[in-house]
Here is the input.
Amino acid sequence: MSSHKSSRKNISNLHVPEPLNRPGDTPDFSNLHMPDLVSDKTHTLPRPDPMVDAYETEELASGLVRVLTLDGRTKGPWDPKLDADTMRLGLRNMMLTRSVDKRMFTVQRQGKASFYMKSLGEEATAVATAMALKDTDMVFPSYRQQGLLLSRGYPLRDLMCQVLSNSGDKLEGKAIPICYSSREKAFYSIGASLGTQMSHAVGWAMGCAYKGTDGVSCAFTGEGATAEGDFHYALNFSSTYRAPAIINVVNNQWAISSFQGIAAGQSKTFAYRGLGFGLASLRIDGNDFLAVYAAIAWAAERARAGGGATVIEHFTYRKEGHSTSDDPSKYRAKEEPDAWPLGDPVDRLKEHLILIGEWDEERHAALEKELDAFVLKAYKEAESFGTLTTETGINPRTMFEKVYEEMPSHLKRQRQELGI
Amino acid sequence: MSSHKSSRKNISNLHVPEPLNRPGDTPDFSNLHMPDLVSDKTHTLPRPDPMVDAYETEELASGLVRVLTLDGRTKGPWDPKLDADTMRLGLRNMMLTRSVDKRMFTVQRQGKASFYMKSLGEEATAVATAMALKDTDMVFPSYRQQGLLLSRGYPLRDLMCQVLSNSGDKLEGKAIPICYSSREKAFYSIGASLGTQMSHAVGWAMGCAYKGTDGVSCAFTGEGATAEGDFHYALNFSSTYRAPAIINVVNNQWAISSFQGIAAGQSKTFAYRGLGFGLASLRIDGNDFLAVYAAIAWAAERARAGGGATVIEHFTYRKEGHSTSDDPSKYRAKEEPDAWPLGDPVDRLKEHLILIGEWDEERHAALEKELDAFVLKAYKEAESFGTLTTETGINPRTMFEKVYEEMPSHLKRQRQELGI
Amino acid sequence: MPKNNNAKQMNMIQAINSALDIKMSQDPDVLVFGEDVGYFGGVFRCTAGLQEKHGLHRCFDAPISEGGIVGTAVGMGAFGLRPVVEIQFADYIYPAFDQICSEAARLRYRSNGDFTAPITIRSPMGGGIHGGTSHSQSPEALFTHIAGIKTIIPSNPYDAKGLLLKAIEDNDPVVFFEPKRLYNGPFDGDLNKPVDSWANHELGQVPEGHYTIDFEKARMHKEGSELTILCYGTMVWVAEAAVRETGVSADIVDLRSLMPLDLETIVASVKKTGHCMILHEATRTSGFGAELSALVQEHCFYHLEKPIVRVTGWDTPYPHALEWEYFPGLERVSKSIIQMMEG
Amino acid sequence: MPKNNNAKQMNMIQAINSALDIKMSQDPDVLVFGEDVGYFGGVFRCTAGLQEKHGLHRCFDAPISEGGIVGTAVGMGAFGLRPVVEIQFADYIYPAFDQICSEAARLRYRSNGDFTAPITIRSPMGGGIHGGTSHSQSPEALFTHIAGIKTIIPSNPYDAKGLLLKAIEDNDPVVFFEPKRLYNGPFDGDLNKPVDSWANHELGQVPEGHYTIDFEKARMHKEGSELTILCYGTMVWVAEAAVRETGVSADIVDLRSLMPLDLETIVASVKKTGHCMILHEATRTSGFGAELSALVQEHCFYHLEKPIVRVTGWDTPYPHALEWEYFPGLERVSKSIIQMMEG
Ligand SMILES: Cc1ncc(C[n+]2csc(CCOP(=O)(O)OP(=O)(O)O)c2C)c(N)n1
Ligand SMILES: Cc1ncc(C[n+]2csc(CCOP(=O)(O)OP(=O)(O)O)c2C)c(N)n1
Ligand SMILES: [Mg+2]
Ligand SMILES: [Mg+2]
Here is the structure.
């Protein structure tokens, strides 16, 4: 525990939760509320029929659903039994995401973009979700699920041009970097206001049910943003109208500098919040590609069959700073990311594939190189459309467009006033 | 089930919950999610130590804590074992509340007040709460807990002048009828925006903890208003900071014309929402004076001892219209109030007192008469300060006061403009 | 003006109900939800009968959660539906403020047209029913400050129906405020007169079928030559009474649509009369009257003979007992007209 | 103007931090909470060191719930504390809008003084850091429309500290917006110049101890005779640069407090100069400039020689790539001055 806590005045009984580790501490996760990992006990959690009564998911909401053991095997009833090709594709998508992140982080550091956010360590939550859903199932990301977009084959160049806010940007520089939008890829427009997408996802799901389609919507929030009212609305409305929605809480332990306990309070798990609304609820090992895949597939099946929404807490860890504006060494122990007891999602899937003889270090290294080159090539092309430090090439007239469907006269007057 | 449901187009899979009974139906509560009342099974629910781990209250959150049986006996570990004087005072406070309600309803019907809200059938939730708390514990009512104010001895005349919005009104006619405020009686200012008081209560409780007092705050919301974000904030903040708060959800089955299922969705109980945040949670028979008393006392003890907040769902029934503006026969079966399986709180406490030889019909009738006379006398006095149909006697200058502590110049200019 | 032979006498509630009914009949993507709007038909009865006629899944009750109501509506709108939601009182729109301002208003822009929120948010506004601080507010100005939202306020049954049909068909999010004091009749601010009903008014003659009224098109309620009165909602009728009482020859411009705004009509009128008065019930400071005043002086500076006058609600909450002292009623408006024209 | 010998060079972040530190030292009832304000000291570092110095229970992180933050603050305020909460960006104040408008602003009035909410809501506002639609907004006008709230916007370290101390001591709820582009220096809107720092400015000389600046008291930033420029926050520095560039002789009135407003200073200046220009970064329609324009024409009609001009952000969301085309910068302000004075 860090030293400055000693200055606390003890007159007060106000309880303020504190994280396990602060800068200077040797990371220790032994007090993390989590089942015993070594015994693999959690691998025996049952996989009930997706139409099970929601309250019977209690042990899944307070436990931890896992498939991959820490030594690379699969175990337990949640194993989705994917074939090697699918797993290799998952590995590739995660590695691609990681490679794009690395590149764009560098680009921002070079001053060519104003902002970027990595998803390092959390790639499985997005990639396995995209692969377990239909491509037409609408996803409502927060801002750390670029893996969804990349898994669905969104052109790298388009993604990068958005980050560069240049003339190649399909959003014409209107949105800040990483606030992608692609109806084509069934990827909802990201807004930076936390939580708001959660009730949109439920509205979309209600639309699916209203129209009698078998569509499912799939929303993501960070654990920190569960404190917003919108999370509550999403749980409430999906419970009331049995909306075919999947409500993912990515618990990556940190919300900028606040640890998950600030949002969790005395809750055992975030999944348990779902139970409070009579929704099926699972807590899963978010660094376990197969567990994520299995949980999403289960929830999608439940939703499509009319069973309503499922809340899924992805228990994972944010290995990097919150964004390019953040320096995590200011508020947490430097070694925390490596001490995270659930490992790294890329490493774990890779090890499993190697263990079952479907992958090897050479192929892995080659793939990494291939992806880096692929990403670099796309980046070069994207950069040719301009950057922050050169010219973005965006026509100022576009500023007045798309505020409304048709431009009202006051905006025409203002455009004139600007002399363009 | 009512007939117009047949017009539903079946193309849609959108689920919209419907109440058990609609106008024209013969009320039937057999499908109400509730333990078997006849067997009195629920009376055996344990009363754990108030400092119990929150998750161990699971069966209390999904069950129904009761003390009074339907034939007037007491049973089970939650019996607060109150002496007869205390119970008689409780009966009196409930009857006083009922008498005031009756009077003010009539007054509104005579056009002398713009609005009124009765609490018929729900008196126990407020009265037993007031009696189980210290008089200094701050209560944050919704608008149907006039029983709190009356139990704490608030002058009837003051209450009535507020409803009449006349020159005797301590609020100088600023607030609509029933939006009382009395810091003296530790009764928080009622605002008409639903739910907002919930986080105020938690802030107040945090203040108590911060200052190291043993104060407790006690908030009320209707079950309908739990859908507001503020309810979520209250649960979240009280869980995070272990605020000494009691969070009461008065589930009176109706929210104006919407039945409780619109807010509940697939939740078993509203108490279960608290469990989602790791808060101790109880569902209690809200028409059982002794159960309410016991639950509040338990929660207050927990809060004072540093155990944090408790969520209590009072399972009760709104026997009258939502307010004087409402006609419940438009949306629910006329006979529902009488068919309510948990009876009436006044009748049940009365029967218990009679059963144990501490009360009789004559004394009851006499008390009723005494209270009606007492109320009428107070009303006559209140009316002498004016009514809506006569003159309210409120000085127009007061309109500009108390917007800010000191009147800024623009308000002085506006007052001047009005020529007063 | 209604010239339709199929016109029927309707009050504003019936006109709104008719618009909803027609749109629900025409377009299966239109659905209606909100607090108490389903079986019961709304606390002001605007959605009466819609559930019975169109089905439980097309007109239903929502949890008491204005934020959730608007948030799910935005999602439905993005999906391709046209939800029409009711906020029970305009005073209770604030819990939905973030969803309206950060989401509904911004979705088209930030996604560059990839996603849109073609939703309509109906809400009764204004005072006059002894509703006090929390059932009387007129928050329209707030929405006019948010780029991406349209703000509409009808003053009569005919406009209410045509504008609501337009709002539902519009592909932008529309906040549609209904002056509740006008639901049953054109209240003119004279407390001593018996309450008027729409049955006696031309604007209470409403075509039974479908028609729309364009936004950005003010309605010239009365024409005159000496004074321009800019107003909307309840204040249109107060203006009419005050003009009658004072005998001034005035253009009464019923804006109907605050955003987008029909500046052309406003400017033409003020240039003609040289005098401008602005009325609204909302709190004065930063009310929509401020914007109107700013625009008028920007565009008609050299035509103005007198300072523009705002007659509005005071900068206080709406007091319960002193409702009529707060309300910018006939007496205050008439007095201001006289002061302006004779002063 | 700071004439204090104990003055120290501070940027705006340090000045704000100093105000918080002083108040926390003086008054045990002052506590600070908000997202990331505790151990980390806030994403803009305004609360750095406060937790370490004053204790975990006096400066702490809150759940990401602006509504909950303001709601609990109102409760604490009613209890008797003086919470100072931070909303991480002004763009994220909307989830708290209901708690601010329906509760903090109304508690005193509806309870007739029985309960009050002496809370301070700090929030960084404005553009200039490539924050796009959701990290650049200037929502001040919305709050000026809500009776019961005070709205303060400092333009420099000296004022920031004195006004913040005043806000914390004030018994009414105060929304205190901090122009984030000014945290580190007086940005004058000239993108081609190296960024200035407060070290070179008199207003960066800030007394170390306690002092307060009254609300409803504008600061005459520069004096002149031909033109009155009404502005606040970042625009004060743009105005200064534009006045320098155009050579016009202008009063630059830094309002500091929007509500309550120092109308007297404004009116005196406009009556002197006969010309009035209003600057703000916020969206134009129903921005605070509208209210200022309305007031000026109401009070100075016969002194105005030209129409009042508003130079503001456009009625669009704040675009990311076109940030500087949106921003009412040096070029636009200078051009407007020239047009007004020569046109
Ligand atoms: C309404 C709102 N409040 C505050 C912020 C500022 N903010 C951006 S990200 C963030 C932390 C979110 O943490 P979490 O939800 O855990 O997601 P993570 O970043 O860990 O993926 C905050 C406070 C915001 N964007 N929107
Ligand atoms: C924010 C807000 N939305 C809507 C309303 C209108 N309204 C007043 S009471 C009520 C029903 C509340 O039901 P419930 O919470 O169950 O309380 P009960 O009346 O049953 O005690 C509604 C919708 C309001 N007052 N505030
Ligand atoms: Mg997180
Ligand atoms: Mg209820």
Observations:
- Residues 394-420 of chain A form one domain.
- Chain A touches chain D through 56 residues (CB under 8 Å).
- The pocket of thiamine diphosphate (ligand 1) is lined by residues A 142, 144, 192-194, 222-225, 250, 252, 254-256, 318, 322; D 35, 64, 88, 92, 95 (CB under 6 Å).
